[in-house]
Amino acid sequence: MGKSKLRAAILGVTGMVGQQYVRMLENHPWFEVTTLVGSRSAGKLYGEAVEWIDSYEPPARIMNMPVKVAEPESEDVDLVFSSLPTEAAYQLDTKYAARFPTVSDASSYRMEPDVPLLIPEVNPDHLGLLEVQRRKRGWKGSLVTSPNCTATGLVIALKPLHDAYRIRKAVVSTMQALSGAGYPGVPSLRIIDNVIPYIKGEEEKVAAETKKMLGAKSSDAISPDPMGVSVMVHRVATIDGHLESAYIETERPVDVEEAKEVLRDFRGKPQEMKLPTAPERPIIVMEQDDRPQPRLDRMAGSVPGMSTVVGRVRRGLDDHSLRLTLLSHNTIRGAAGNAILIAEMMHELGYLE
Amino acid sequence: MGKSKLRAAILGVTGMVGQQYVRMLENHPWFEVTTLVGSRSAGKLYGEAVEWIDSYEPPARIMNMPVKVAEPESEDVDLVFSSLPTEAAYQLDTKYAARFPTVSDASSYRMEPDVPLLIPEVNPDHLGLLEVQRRKRGWKGSLVTSPNCTATGLVIALKPLHDAYRIRKAVVSTMQALSGAGYPGVPSLRIIDNVIPYIKGEEEKVAAETKKMLGAKSSDAISPDPMGVSVMVHRVATIDGHLESAYIETERPVDVEEAKEVLRDFRGKPQEMKLPTAPERPIIVMEQDDRPQPRLDRMAGSVPGMSTVVGRVRRGLDDHSLRLTLLSHNTIRGAAGNAILIAEMMHELGYLE
Amino acid sequence: MGKSKLRAAILGVTGMVGQQYVRMLENHPWFEVTTLVGSRSAGKLYGEAVEWIDSYEPPARIMNMPVKVAEPESEDVDLVFSSLPTEAAYQLDTKYAARFPTVSDASSYRMEPDVPLLIPEVNPDHLGLLEVQRRKRGWKGSLVTSPNCTATGLVIALKPLHDAYRIRKAVVSTMQALSGAGYPGVPSLRIIDNVIPYIKGEEEKVAAETKKMLGAKSSDAISPDPMGVSVMVHRVATIDGHLESAYIETERPVDVEEAKEVLRDFRGKPQEMKLPTAPERPIIVMEQDDRPQPRLDRMAGSVPGMSTVVGRVRRGLDDHSLRLTLLSHNTIRGAAGNAILIAEMMHELGYLE
Amino acid sequence: MGKSKLRAAILGVTGMVGQQYVRMLENHPWFEVTTLVGSRSAGKLYGEAVEWIDSYEPPARIMNMPVKVAEPESEDVDLVFSSLPTEAAYQLDTKYAARFPTVSDASSYRMEPDVPLLIPEVNPDHLGLLEVQRRKRGWKGSLVTSPNCTATGLVIALKPLHDAYRIRKAVVSTMQALSGAGYPGVPSLRIIDNVIPYIKGEEEKVAAETKKMLGAKSSDAISPDPMGVSVMVHRVATIDGHLESAYIETERPVDVEEAKEVLRDFRGKPQEMKLPTAPERPIIVMEQDDRPQPRLDRMAGSVPGMSTVVGRVRRGLDDHSLRLTLLSHNTIRGAAGNAILIAEMMHELGYLE
């Protein structure tokens, strides 16, 4: 690119998702991190403030950058990535969005009628809501949200099946990674030799967000898809990668081998546009009996952590039902990676100007 | 009891389930272990042969007993507990059953039409098949089987709900403990920071066994229950205790609070008969948001490891569906404990004479 | 006992050690818990306040008792067990000790010259310091401290060897359990597939406390033992039980088999006095190549969690050195259990009157 | 390079170390894998035979290559890497060495007087033994061995300290990763919530190999270094990376800050020669209190897995002792990586012609 890079701020930069932003935006062809915002760590250098818990070595440039408090009115950037905690996001995401194109991982505004909840491969047309948003709120900037980390992989896997067979019900049990709880997150005494069958608010979020993302956009709103979604969540002792076991019932009869083709052939706008963070294949279908597995497969694909890995596709109870296991990296596609992909698509569609 | 104890043989005594038999029969009021049978370890003392992997200290009496090869024709015992590997059980379970009352944990004969597959609280009437069995096979002894460790907890939880609401479909995802794979079982390199979404043959077994146990006994056979059962299995890094997340659809409308009462109030013949290994409550219902958990709850109840612990009972997609999480100790209620309870019930009903 | 039980308060009762006190004092023959003190949880019932993380089911009587704030001046009890965090213990332990016999697990006063740091089997004569303490401080009550959980097992194993061979140097590497860090303690993201070679302040504490406990009591002070103690600590992913690998050099030549006898034959005052919480054998020596192991052996012995389990006793570099591995339960003998044993010994010696 | 690559055979190619060879030799500038040898998997394609347990995706070229039986007399290669199990290595390593330059990870011949046991940074001069070897055995090829995975990191860290301060004693406790036991290796039931203080034969190997590698080469033999080495080994629940906690006593007084410089400044022949697999810094010294940690640091440095990471350098008992923690990747530097580095050095020194 001849022109200079867009300057990006990261809000909540010392958290687990913040750390993924730092990693994924280093050497990004279009965006450059120029502002780090954190509340508790404001005033320190990033290298002093962050409890880095990844084996990846953080870039020296960022480690030596100062972390500052949020100043939505005077920030000098071209776009904003927010991974603030829910409460802080309620306060700040809209203030930033009033002035800057803002992509947020927080759950705070995901279900607002005029806020797109986006997976670029799944519902790029929902970006059209931004016109409603601008009209209604009078913002110079905009707010787009990235979904819950468990909903993300689920919706990517359901989308092509829904298009092909029309899903009526999805019953899902999850086995979610520890990094999904942030840091410090789950105490080790709770999870060694254990499974916790509960994550506060998660089941409701996954169901509602799934229906919103698969919903149809009319002139100025999204009608949630009518499918039934029942989610049962569990925390297990894995570091990264949410595994989900799904049973679906469909309107049209479903053939297992054909369904695998449908999953394999799925492509979206990010693949057409060849966006930098778009994986070649949004869905990787594995044929081995015992895959996907979190430790082996969470980084599979051409852009590690961005593909949803599906396996064990098999018959359900009859010709109108299907079972499968899916794996999605929760801090990459389930957070920072999806948000960056949103920003890349917005960039190419002229929404960042 | 004034009379002397019945002499019991344990087949496959050095395995994980064999170790549970040793533990649970020590100080049993009615049965006494007098014969230890193992193939690879024959000729050694038990203490030399066994790789004891429990924190419980094995009884000195047993540690000093010799392990011998199987001699079904000349064994001098009153009853037999078999926890042989599948292949060996095919060879030996029927040879023992020809002469002795035999209770087997092996899957080999579970689905035979004239072999009861039994959970004493659930289908004690299936014991009536033994008449058919004797007639057909001409045995002096008998063969009763104990179900798959995953089916066991599931069927205990489904039974009272089925009676109350008539279940049409059950969709179940399991998170199974390492001890279910025996010893050495799952390599540690496979399971640390991981989940394996596959256990060979398990999904089919759980579905078929569930339908047999909940089936109706006619004069000389069992008609499997017509409900649909779809099972998706996963191995997780827990030592003991299979956790199962279930979604059911029912014929009659179901009320969540009432369903909890139905589960809580469930009692069976073992409780009526006050059998030594019968837990006071076959089902324990927990109200906390985040329970049951394998490490905390697998030993809950008056006879540790014998109760099924149910939690997170909540609404499914509509008035005819329900979700719940259940936990069952796989080597106790899921194997040795259930087999011992079967033998105790047979004893009281005169089947061991 | 004909007389009624002594009434005990537990300070810091909702923490991990507090939970062990509750468990171990239930049904105690001499002591009865009558007062629960906690700061953050004051005003709640114990059952509401505690995050119980053990599979043991807490006694209903205690679950329904209120937790109250500390009121050292008006408490109505006969003795006090303190497991307060260090800072709170600085404030409160001495206030309670001014009025009541107080046994504290906190590190706050362990190194004070007039405060006994006690393992009843090792240095019961250090209780004599209480005369100095009373004289110097004018207290009606008294303060005795229980050592660091890592020092406890180490000192128990070193004591008989020191008596027999005179230890000059001990080089120790520890592999410590998660429960030693309290709750919530170590984040799971830090410890899965990992070891942390650091625990703040631990190495210094273990060295200093070991030398104090093995030191000689003169008329009114303890001279620390002159042996060199070098400790390197590590946190590993075990729930309970600190494993320690020790290399020692001795003044007198040491024979391996004789050293095992010396360890096996070790008995102390609690065994002589047959105190209720005294294990029959303070040290259990295992001969198997691969023991002790935390999960298998932390509860070994006649009073689970109170014995130090020693194994792999073998030659060091020459005739004056020895190596061994030891295991000690950190929240039982390393905290609540040792404190209760101290109180039992004080009771029998008339210090609680 | 203008000339074509040297053709390499890998013996034992489906094992864990074999898998590392495949990964590290893909795209190697000088060597090309042309022959895969395995016993049980002979006749299959590599992709069918291997139980791949790494998240790295194996190269398609290798996955489609056949695995063949060993034929030392007719193999058509330029060099051989052997990672056979001990027994097979006894049979085959010398047969291959009779014809080809062979680098072996097996322990079988490591302690033979005429066989170099090599870490290229530590004792490159020991390669001179090959003249003795050729003379004595009449081989066309040669045999060089790569040390035990625990000895490797230890010796790299001790070497510069030994040169600077002359080490008299090293007391080492290890916390070793699961991959060191191969596959299937340690059963998961043994290691969850546990530590195993034993690995058969390991302590003796580490001590003897350390002394050989640090020993002096005379005209035709190595005199083992006289330092005392006492090793206590433990298996912990980490995937990769052996952590070792070391206490050393030195002849000359040692200053902590200076010792860190000595470690940091260490460079060897591979760095001078800029060998492809040589890390820029053989030793990385970390200053953080709680590092190195296996999961975070095992892949640190310019060639992941090839550097020894040292931390917690601190005073021992007096001016002549020092403590430190070190981490070394056991299947990379501790096996395949070191063997490849040996071959690279031999290549540059003309030993492969």
UniProtKB/TrEMBL annotation, chains A, B, C, D:
GO terms for molecular function: aspartate-semialdehyde dehydrogenase activity; NAD binding; NADP binding; protein dimerization activity. The keyword Lipid biosynthesis does not apply. Keywords: NADP, Oxidoreductase. The active site is at residues 149, 242. InterPro entries: ASADH-related, Asp_semi-ald_DH_pep-lack, NAD(P)-bd_dom_sf, Semialdehyde_DH_NAD-bd, Semialdhyde_DH_dimer_dom. It comes from the Archaea. GO terms for biological process: methionine biosynthetic process; threonine biosynthetic process. Pfam families: Semialdhyde_dh, Semialdhyde_dhC. Residues 7-130 form the Semialdehyde dehydrogenase NAD-binding domain. Its EC number is 1.2.1.11. It is an enzyme of class 1 (oxidoreductase). The keyword Oxidoreductase applies. Belongs to the aspartate-semialdehyde dehydrogenase family. This is Aspartate-semialdehyde dehydrogenase.
